[in-house]
Amino acid sequence: MQYHEFQHILFEKREPHILWLTLNRPEVLNAANARLHTELVEVWQTIDRDPGVHVAVVTGAGRAFSAGGDLQMVEDAYRNYDEVLRILDEARDLVYNMLHCRKPIISAINGAAVGAGLVVALLADISIAAESARLADGHVRMGVAAGDHAAIIWPLLVGMAKAKYYLMTSDFLSGKEAERLGLVSLCVPDAEVLARAEAIAQELATGPRHAICFTKRALNQWLLQAAPIFDHSLALEMLGFFGEDMMAGVNGLRARKRPLYPSSNREA
Description:
This protein is globular. The protein is an alpha/beta fold and about 270 residues long. It is built from 11 helices and 10 strands. About 50% of the residues lie in helices and about 15% in strands.
């Protein structure tokens, strides 16, 4: 895709060789509908091919980074084999496209980051969270396994005990707690998030470009070693799209109350 083809991501080129990406569906807290989900997959290859970009910074319009996947998109995939396969491919490609993008990626997490939004926030090479940011992997709350990015990066960032706790409960973390646990690189006051991202982008863009890119490539081998674990988790997540618990989770999220999951009332 070319930059002008993106509908829900705004682009601004800044000197020297910095590209700002703004997720732009503020009326729904930048939740990813099917179109934005596809754009989040494609944009990293577009950036990778652009010789005028040395560093990318991604943030969200309005008061959120991204509230995750649009519930209508999830509901449309319920027991829809072809749509589940499409989401499987995109969820896999989103992670691998970010990891293989040669340009350093900085996330400026200016508010809530959930689901697909959290994938982008945490797979960025440097993540800067506002103190009031709220981060959560909501897959289990929605009745499906924590797939997407979770298995590939959470245990490495925060350790297995904390990863299991937050991924199995879907509890939220504040920006401060995320930094304390090592889930994000930095936490700064809300008003300083974009300025800090800009300062770090300037430092990287004026630094030794190849050394920085090669360092990213080497460190990402830790994550790529977990590729079989990630692929396994993603397949298990997709399996959940055929179970009753997922629709109970979707309905609970719509009603903003804890769902009654059908599987919890059955014996193993």
